Amino acid sequence: MSSQIATPSSSTSPADGIDPVQGGYRGYHNYFVPEEFFAHDPQRGAIFLRDGQRAAKVTDAFIAGLHQGIEDEVGSAGALMMYQCGKTWAEQDMHRFANRMRQEFGGGKREIWQMNPRFVWECWWWPLTITGFGGWHLDLSFGEKGLTVVEIRNSAVARSMKLLGKPVCHLYAGLFAGAFSYYERIERQSIEIQCYSMGNDVCKFLVGDEKKVNAADFWRQEGANSSEILAHMDA
User: Fold this and answer.
1) Structurally, how many domains does the chain consist of?
2) What are the residue ranges of helices labelled H in the chain?
3) At 144, which CATH number?
4) Do 76 and 69 meet the contact criterion of CB atoms below 8 Å apart?
5) For residue 235, pLDDT beyond 70
6) Which of 44, 130, 152, 169 has its CA 20 to 30 A from that of 90?
7) What is the model's pTM?
8) Where is pLDDT greater, at 217 or 54?
9) Domain span including residue 79
10) Angle at 82 between CA 99 and CA 97, to 5 degrees
């Protein structure tokens, strides 16, 4: 199985049928199969998303090799590097996403902060599901404690790695940190508290402020599982 990863770009696609409208697409809200989501430009040998963002398709072997290569070069600092890449990418992606949502669903005026949060988040993640990043479940029940829990099934990173007995989805953690920082308009961090690479069925992430994420990191290093970590957050 190949994973399809989009990389930020200001390029737009000249493909027929693509109608850009200030960061969104008129009358085309849902993407159900890759053929609907991607536009190919054979003359330029390029792939674009529906809103004109340049994309690349890579294999699981490429993802595994990328992570292994970074770890060989910088050691444990590679985790932070992937986290920062994810965070920066998400901040840029959320800016594009907010523009698209304003045009598609906000009449050009209503901002994402004025829309139903679950609707906003499902609209944001669905294209990532299509591009191979896996399905997600968003748990907002910890909102009063300033926390959000995200579950990812079939993580593109975790499925490409061996069972290493430790979290490997640092790119995803960065994605959620950047996305929630943008949406909540306050600095957020994220940590993976359960991973497929540790033998679990799904990957699980905790998003919150620095103090809570540091506390979760402490309990994770102490060997606590995700349920125990969340219980400590609830204490």
Assistant:
1) 1
2) 34-37, 60-74, 77-104, 117-128, 156-160, 170-184, 210-221, 226-234
3) 3.30.1380.20
4) no
5) no
6) 44
7) 0.84
8) 217
9) 2-234
10) 10
Q: Give the separation between CA 4 and CA 189, rounded to whole angstroms.
A: 25
Euclidean distance between CA atoms 192 and 201, whole angstroms: 14
Burial label, 105 (beta-carbon count in 10 A; 0-12, 13-18, 19+)? middle
- Which token pair is 195? 């991973």
Q: Name the amino acid, one letter, at 45.
A: G
Contacts of 199 (CB under 8 A, 6+ apart): 163, 165
Q: How far apart are CA 42 and CA 91, in angstroms?
A: 30
Structure-model confidence comparison of residues 21 and 95, the more confident one:
95
Q: What is the pLDDT of residues 36-45, one digit of tens each?
A: 777 788 888 8
> What pLDDT is recorded for position 34?
67
Can you say whether the dihedral through the CA atoms of 215, 221, 223, 227 is positive or negative?
A: positive
Look at residue 143 and give its three-state secondary structure: helix
